[in-house]
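Lab manual, section 2.4: Encoding a predicted structure.

Procedure: take the sequence of the chain (118 residues), apply the prediction step described in section 2.3, and record the output as structure tokens. A sample record is shown.
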Amino acid sequence: MSRYLQDRYGVPGDKVDAVLRECLPSESAYQTIIMEWIRNTYPRSFVWKAAAGPYSRGGIPDICAIINGRFYGFEVKRPYLGKLSRLQEETIKAIKAAGGKAAVVSFPEQVAEVIGGG
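Recorded output:
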């Protein structure tokens, strides 16, 4: 994407991140789209947004869902910009080790791949 912005629009390389941050929707907008997609696609699912706070566990994915008896955790990141923290990486690994499914996503299509993959 950065090469595209540089070549197509003449955006200097050191300004690409700033342009993307300004133009892309917020992370919460992607979370809302994904939660709505899950609820519409899997009406019997149980979906919630993990709340962060002083008494919550760090690293928990933004969106958690139980679909057909299976736990899913989706860490939502803005495309091209979002990066996982070390704690988020470790939490995703721990969820997978416990038998759940977890992934970093930006779009409903990515969520569909994780759910469809079993």
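Check your result against the sample. The longest helix spans residues 27-41.
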